[in-house]
Design brief:
It is a single chain. The chain has 275 residues and is of the alpha+beta class. It folds into two domains: 105 residues, no CATH class; 142 residues, Immunoglobulin-like, CATH 2.60.40. The protein contains six helices and eleven strands. It is elongated and about 70 Å long.
Length: 275
């Protein structure tokens, strides 16, 4: 990964080597938005020290979902190399915005809205794979039992890649006793939630929408939490909250049962009236 002009012999074809214009490199650029992509550095910085910002740019271009820290890191090699350098090198908001890298509005701020320093390593760690951010949620605050509950959610993916594994997306209602009493599957396809339109040279972030209508049926009147649940599709782990997608918003409540089931992003509350 990024070692010398050919990425350590991955793309040895002149004159473009590991750059756009090499047909093999361009194939990866074209296909990477739709599959899992992983990478690693050489052992012991063979090929030279790798710049963290340059690494982030390549990871964005090729939609990296994961990256190994086994090579060129003191934690495994006993000596300091590139990844150690990433862990110490500050990355500023200005640098990120200049390169049109993905960034949340508050990423360089703390809960008190004061500036916070980030390193190259932290930025890469936080943006590998998907980083789903809730933008808005539209729904009525009150509905009658004989009505339906329409919900529309707007999301942005601030990560380097889309969601790879299949996932159903539900709107759910949770009662005041902490029980998930109703779930409504939507037609949303998280695999299509690209961070930007593949091939867009400006890497403009895309908006994604989840819409659905919850049929209330015989639900009891009262107040409910409305949530967005994005579990794994595999039934053996579907109720395990550790495998559910949690939005990157720090102010979005995360709900699970007492024994750690579900994993729901809470959008707000809804009152279901008797009439």
């Amino acid at each position: 990964f990024l070692a010398n002009k050919s990425d350590g012999g991955t793309w040895p074809e002149p004159p473009f080597y590991a750059n756009p214009g090499n047909p093999e490199f361009d194939i990866v650029t074209k296909e990477s938005p739709y599959m899992a992509v992983d990478g690693e550095l050489f052992w012991s910085d063979q090929g030279g020290k790798i710049d963290g910002l340059k690494a982030a740019l390549r990871m964005r271009l090729h939609h990296f979902t994961s990256f190994s820290i086994t090579h060129s890191y003191s934690g495994y090699e006993g000596k300091r190399y590139s990844i150690d350098h990433w862990m110490e090198t500050p990355l500023t908001e200005e640098e990120v915005r200049k390169e049109n890298l993905p960034i949340s509005d508050g990423y360089f701020r703390n809960y008190d809205n004061k500036p916070v320093e980030r390193t190259e390593f932290e930025y890469i760690r936080d943006h590998l794979g998907y980083r789903i951010e809730l933008q808005s949620a539209e729904y009525p605050n009150q509905v009658s039992k004989n009505e339906s509950l329409p919900v529309k959610v707007e999301l942005i993916n601030r990560g380097f890649a889309t969601i790879i594994n299949p996932r159903p997306v539900y709107f759910v209602l949770i009662n005041t006793s902490g029980e998930l009493v109703l779930k409504q599957m939507t037609n949303a396809d998280p695999h299509s939630w690209q961070p930007f339109e593949p091939g867009d040279p400006e890497y403009k972030p895309l908006m994604h929408y989840v819409e659905g209508v919850i049929s209330l049926g015989k639900i009891e009147s009262g107040e409910y939490m409305l949530g967005l649940w994005m579990p794994d599709a595999d039934e053996s782990i579907q109720l395990d909250s550790r495998y559910a997608v949690r939005t990157a918003n720090g102010d979005t409540p995360w709900w699970t049962t007492a024994d750690g089931k579900y994993g729901v992003n809470i959008l707000g509350t809804v009152k279901v009236a008797a009439k």
